[in-house]
Amino acid sequence: MASPDKKSFPLRVDPALWAEVERLAAAELRSANAQAELLLREALGRRGIKLAPPQGRAAAARKDPESKA
């Protein structure tokens, strides 16, 4: 079930690409959707676009794998 504060939309992705997203998600104990969002945020960050950290229960429970804490 989608979060009420999140935008839902259909996304067409190459099956091999999505399989890698799912593999990474499983390795990092995230859903594929959360992994895709993380990858999008990282890509935007590399382009100099900084967003506020995600809000919500899941965001508070997980830690950024790149953090030094």
SSE blueprint:
Elements: H1 15-27, H2 32-46, H3 57-61
Helix pairs in contact: 1-2
Q: Any descriptors?
A:
single chain, 69 residues, mainly alpha
The major pleated sheet works out as: none
Poorly predicted regions are none
Distance between the termini: 31 Å
Beta-strand residue fraction: under 5%
Helix and strand element order:
HHH
Q: What is the number of beta strands?
A: 0
**Tally of alpha and pi helices:** 3
Q: Average the pLDDT over all residues and give the rounded result.
A: 85
The rough form would be described as: globular
Helix content: 40-55%
Radius of gyration: 13 Å
Task: Tell me the structural class.
Answer: mainly alpha
Please characterize this protein's 3D structure.
This protein is mostly helical. The protein has a domain at 15-49. Helices cover 48% and strands 0% of the residues. The protein has helices at residues 15-27, 32-46, 57-61. The longest helix has 15 residues, at 32-46.
Brief synopsis:
This protein has 69 residues and is mostly helical. Helices cover 48% and strands 0% of the residues.
